Amino acid sequence: MTQLDRRTTLAGTAVVAFDPMTSQWLTSFPESSGAVPSPALDGELVTDEASLTEAATDYGHLVHRRPRAVLRPGSVSDVVAVVRFANEHGLTVAMRGQGHSTFGQAQADCGIVIDSRTLATIHEIAPDRAVVDAGVQWLDLVRAALAVGVTPPVTTDYLGLSVGGTLCVGGIGGASQHFGLLVDNVFELEVATGDGRLVTCSADHERDLFEAVLGGLGQFAVIVRATVRLVPAPATARVYTLTYPQVTDLTAAQRTALADGRFDYLEGQLVPTDDDGFAFVLEGGAWFTSEPPDDDALLAGLTPSGVDVADLPYFEWLNRIYETVEQIEALRLPGPWLNVLVPDAAADDVVTELLTTLTPADAGGVALLYPTTRSLITRPQVMVPEGPVFFLLALLRAVSPPDDAEAERLIAENDVLYAKVRAVGGTNYPVNALHLTPADWRTHYGERWPAVRSAKERYDPRGVLTPGQGIFENISEDVSRAPGTP
């Protein structure tokens, strides 16, 4: 199934050749030049204005790096062919899913962007797994899986993300307390490595590559297909919305609920109030099909100041914010997001200090704050704080009306807050608008950095893949620069 942006006309002009001297793609083959034929494809490589403009932006609307061509693959082979071509001619390549990066992470300045929305087939749904192409939206997979009584064990709150894009980052949600991240629920990947090889990898075959790619930010290989875990699906979600007067009351209740795993889903929100402050809300979900949960048992010891309980169809709960996100996206607002993982021991202090200055406008409205269990995070590329529990703090900022100076102010605030979080042992959940140098990335990976660098040299030796992350660019120039320097 093709999933293309409904707001953009994508009828492009296919190219037939590439001129290495000018790095230009050509729609006709000149009689006398050094141009070389473009790779043979099942899909198309296009250079029209609409396609290039779309590939030069993302959900954040903050960074605009324009590629010279966009690939709409008609097959996995197309992805491999283009990556090989990029290696031969000194080009860069980035895979773009649904465009929900916030700071140009899936862009490729003067390179090739692969639009995975045309690589979106659900190949198989079995009782315990699904085989899907990278461009499949979680929304479509959830619908297809629920039709036969199964579901992914954990999902992100917004289901409009692509499978491949999410697996490059990690994928965290309210069920991560029981199942880890989305990357912890993958059986097998099919990938195109940065040096142009099509490889099937898993925990039992090509394990080093498998572990490098999951949460690997697109640096080592392009995910083209994934086999992901499914579990039996419930029919109904009973949702408990518990309100607290102070943020420390919220986090105390969350720790109690996390410790005994009473909820199937556990999150938390900082919700704007009429006086320009926040209310503090625990969201707990209990799934059932026939026998409803015991409300008294689930609420025992949590002592909220307010309680609301509602039953929703399970799919309706999973997809509850889809339309809201789509409406916000249509506004094309700058989105300088910040998502950080804070160690439990420092979480109360970090958030309490933040609330002395944070306004609902600067937070982008609702902010997220919720704990999960570190032992369930098994993929080595995903850097999480030390200790048994950590909190996700997410400021999903939006600048309305659009204002460049205001966006830059919020990005600068992101830099400051991230430095504070890093100082107490926290980490970056890397979907953010942050000024990060290669030195910052070395700090992010810490003792794992040599393994990350080695994997890059092994699987993408020419540095073809995903330049927008800025992890390996100009490392020698940045070694002496202080972490946090833009």
Distance between the termini: 41 Å
Strand order of the largest sheet: 18-15-17-16-20-21-19-22
Q: What is the overall number of helices?
A: 16
Rounded to an integer in angstroms, the radius of gyration calculated over CA atoms is 22 Å
What coarse outline follows from CA principal-axis ratios?
A: globular
Mean pLDDT comes to 93
Largest sheet: 8 strands, antiparallel
Helix content: 25-40%
Number of strands: 22
What portion of residues belong to β-strands? 15-25%
Structural class: alpha+beta
Low-confidence stretches: 1-11, 475-486
Briefly characterize the structure.
The protein has 486 residues and is an alpha+beta fold. The protein is built from 16 helices and 22 strands.
List keywords for this structure.
486 residues, alpha+beta, eight-stranded antiparallel β-sheet, five-stranded antiparallel β-sheet, 16 helices, 22 strands, 29% helix, disordered N terminus, disordered C terminus
Describe the protein's architecture and organization.
With 486 residues, this protein is α+β, with helices and mostly antiparallel strands. Helix content is 29%, strand content 24%. It contains 16 helices and 22 strands. It has helices at 49-55, 76-89, 138-146, 163-169, 176-179, 207-213, 247-260, 295-299, 314-318, 322-330, 344-354, 360-363, 404-423, 438-445, 449-459, 475-478; strands at residues 17-19, 24-26, 36-37, 44-46, 69-72, 93-96, 112-115, 122-125, 129-133, 150-151, 186-193, 198-202, 221-229, 231-232, 236-244, 265-272, 278-288, 306-313, 338-343, 367-373, 389-395, 427-428. It has an 8-stranded antiparallel β-sheet. The protein has a 5-stranded antiparallel β-sheet with strand order 8-9-13-11-12. It has a 4-stranded mixed β-sheet with strand order 4-5-7-6, with helices on both faces. The longest helix is centred in the C-terminal third of the chain and has 20 residues, at 404-423. It starts with 16 loop residues before the first strand and ends in an 8-residue tail after the last helix. Mean pLDDT is 93; it is low at 1-11 and 475-486.
